[in-house]
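$ run holo --ligand "FE2/S2 (inorganic) cluster" --emit tokens
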Amino acid sequence: MSDTDAFEPVQNASAPSPAVGHSDTVVIMPETRPEWSRRNFIKGVIASGVTVSGAIYFGPALTRPQSLSAQGVERLITLNINGQTRRVDVLPGETLAMTLRYKLGLTGTKLGCDRAECGACTVLISDVNHYSCTLLTHRVGNREVTTVEGLEGANGQLHPVQQAFIDELSPQCGFCTPGQVMSAVALLRSNPNPTRDEARIAMAGNLCRCGAYDHYLNGVMRAAEETSNA
Ligand code: FES
Ligand code: FES
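-- output --
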């Protein structure tokens, strides 16, 4: 009897089986009974491994008595966005970029790669530039978040960096521009008079698919010069 013969009847218990005896009586032949064999053993190990790995993957959702999505109070958090207190319902795995764009309507923050590679989603958190696409909103806490919308002056005037970018014709398609602006603002807040190389390094996390890097650098240096002379 082969290993295959030993296993197959278990799967086909309701299928016609070799039978002997009276027509009303079905007797399973010994060859069709499940038996321990090396093949059965290996299949059992594989099956239990799948069960364990599946439990790990689905475990949190399956084992919690109540899913997080049902715990509305836990999801409702307070954020400090652009100087305003905002109450928002945030999913456990939600990124700050998603919250800003799709819960708070702050679409100036762009989503490019959505995996910390392009810088389109850059915002300031306590004046430090961060990729908001890979930061969980629940990790922000009460720190101050600034988006490109938050740079607007009291009378609606542009931030000096924004004006300098316009003057230097930095944006081409403009998709990377909000992220470039936020990184430049973060740089000038920590280092108001950077060298061109310092600015180049500080802006290195912001990709520009249009290749307008020198235009953006010119804008950063112009903004630094104009704010230091103001
Ligand atoms: S969208 Fe966040 S780094 Fe690209
Ligand atoms: S201006 Fe087009 S991606 Fe930078």
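-- notes --
Residues 171-176, 208-210, 212 surround FE2/S2 (inorganic) cluster (ligand 2) (CB under 6 Å).
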